[in-house]
Structure prediction request, 404 residues.
Amino acid sequence: MNDYITTSDVIIIGGGASGLMCAGFAGQKGLHTVVLDRANKVGKKILMSGGGRCNFTNYFVEPDNYLCANPHFVKSALSRYTQWDFISLVEKHQIPYHERKHGELFCDNSAKDILKMLIEECPPDKVDIRTKCDIDNIQYENDYFVLKTNIGTFKAKQLVIASGGLSIPTMGASGFGYQVAEQFGHSVLPTRAGLVPFTFSDATKGLTERLSGLAHDSAIYNERRTFRENILFTHRGISGPAALQLSNYWHTSEEIQINLFPETDIEAVLFEAKQNAPKALLKNILAKSLAKSFVQELEDLFWKDLATTLMGEMQDKALRKIAQQLQSWTLKPSGTEGYRTAEVTLGGVHTDEVSSKTMESKKQKGLFLIGEVLDVTGHLGGFNFQWAWASAFAAGESLIACKN
Prediction:
């Protein structure tokens, strides 16, 4: 252990999106800032995000895009550092970007551009970024946070927890931030994997395996929320943007429903086919909108006994039932793929114990909590990054120079 003590104005635990952003704001205010990260390099999750292109924000950011036990908590920070502020920063660094569906913004080239920008925003004479740092102990002594680590002892009057959640442990994720929060008296709401694929253990698993790689535009829903976009069948279950979104609103043992024709009155289509194509088979009618392999699976699942029945011979009651099966296909996931592939962590430090304006703890003077460690989870589409930028700004604006 190196006994050398580094004293600074601010210590930030976590070199991810929120931590680096906060370090930039602090450094530009002239604050001596140390960023500590346990990985061998900072920003790993940034680099892998958006398929390597980093979906860094969204044109349409609203509080309704976030899950939080206190839905009002996000409003202050999101209004004070908006998507337009971050877009301006991206443009200042001349990073080319483009819009995809639903207002999602991605780098044209690489997520490396965003990471490079965040590091360049940190004045090198003010911000000291340390990697491969394992924190052994944190104490609060004589108005200072004292951190003993494998690379020395660090002390500051202000400590920012930006260490993220539990998602993707191979990227270095851990529950360390929650432990620190609890050490200083905070409540941590139960955590679970979010924006994560569904898995199945019943006959549906065989179906998804056989259809693996097939995507279909659907509305997937439960009693809480509906999302309309592609679902993707995988060897383990159902993924795709719509399924990932709904996973944030799903609880173990609950059912989900899928509408395979979200913009079509399929019952009317079937009755029209009965009238105008009486010699057609149901599978041929459906194959106009669904992949043939998918139609075959649905036929085996729902109407095998009607496989050879001509449309003109179908009873109206049967057609109505088929339409209902296609537009409210009910499935019961056995679970999700968990933190291994989850994009975010639901739950976290209770926001009632944190100032929504400054991100400072109401339990411990000088302690700030930002980003994913808090009980704030955004939808898919750049919203979690926008929360990282906004919460980092709120904290950064509140940090002060300390007479050490």
